[in-house]
Amino acid sequence: MTQRDRPDTRIVAFASDNYAGVHPAVLQAIAAANEGFTPAYGDDPWTAALCSRVRELLGAAAETFPVFNGTGGNVTALAALARPFEAVICAETAHIATDECGAPERFAGCKLVDLPTPDGKLTPELVRRGAVGLGDQHHVQAAVVSISQSTELGTVYSADELRALTAAAHEAGLLVHLDGARLTNAAAALGIGLRESTTECGIDVVTLGGTKCGLLGAEAVVFLRPGLADRYQYVRKQGTQLASKMRFVSAQLLRLLQDDLWHEAAGHANGMARRLADGLAGLPGVSLAYPVQANGVFAALPRRATERLMERYRFYVWDEDAGVVRWMCSWQTGEADVDALVTAVRAALV
User: I need a surface site. Which of 58, 85, 95, 107 has the fewest CB within 10 A?
Assistant: First the structure.
């Protein structure tokens, strides 16, 4: 057996919150939806109940469209908002700019204007800086600001920051899209609800994440401003994000939004990240690269320590030059998992 043929037996608990399993309550919801026949393509009771629940949580104007995954949700949302000669302003670390293989540009046909930030967060000044050349036929026209909450660096916009950002965008005539793959983590970290995190902050469209919060594979594009969703059903179909057996996607999202399951799961993940950060505090040669505000821990380690850890654990080197690695916690991460990783880091530093 060659090295390539050998199975990877490294511990994967901290590589990504996508590595976690499906929450038992969500599995039960899927099983409960698997009874008999029901209309396809969203004309089912689970999708109707989901739409009603989202309106309860995000406001009466919310129009909800379940999709398969976050990239599909992001690119179809942006395609519904921006035309090919228009642009989307985002942070240079945004998922749409770094981890979606150019899908927004290819599918929506619009340009991404990705701006450098120290912490993954856009500011009103950056939005104003990106919205240049408006009305100039030689210049791409900014149409949308897309932000991630929480960001790819694990940082979180406060509600005040979001309101200031959306006010600046709207003043410039731009719409605001929120990539909410980890919106539940951000809301739990802020101690506020989903409506207070989106609608009340002036967000126009949100890709509501679920897969990173214990779902099998379910997200939703939610339009919060009346009239924006008029074309989306056609964009979703053309973008291969229309599920025929939508009841199974909707049942997952519905369960996540019932009984505050989202808050319980996301809050636990955040707590494990905080436990990990506390355990790393004071270790020689270890420093946090960014504040631990949600469920991600970014830490700078000596190169040799990282190499030793990667013999036992699977995780991502975020910034090779700076020696920064990323550890993600999930609803499934346990205290024993965290404590074992801290012990392993301490041993790798020797």
Answer: 85
Give backbone dihedrals phi and psi of 222, rounded to 5 degrees, phi first.
-120, 120
DSSP, res 11: B
Contacts 24+ apart (CB under 8 A), 306-313: 306/348, 308/347, 308/348, 309/344, 309/345, 309/348, 310/10, 311/10, 312/10, 312/11, 312/344, 313/10, 313/11, 313/12, 313/13, 313/14, 313/15, 313/341, 313/344
* Domain residue ranges in the chain: 24-256, 261-348
Class of domain 261-348 as given by CATH: alpha beta
Task: Please state the three-class secondary structure of 199-214 as a single string.
Answer: HHHCCCEEEECCHHHC
Q: How far apart are CA 284 and CA 144, in angstroms?
A: 44
Mean pLDDT of 285-293: 97
In three-state secondary structure terms, 221 is strand
pLDDT tens for 49-60 read: 999 999 999 999
| Token pair listed for 64 | 């909800």
The identity of residue 289, as a single letter, is: A
Report which residue type is found at 114: D
The CATH architecture to which 24-256 belongs is: 3-Layer(aba) Sandwich (3.40)
Condensed to tens digits (0 to 9), the pLDDT of residues 194-217 reads 999 999 999 999 999 999 999 999
For residue 16, give Cα distances in angstroms to 261, 296, 315, 326: 20, 9, 7, 9
The CA distances from residue 3 to 7, 82, 306, 308, in Å, are 9, 47, 20, 18
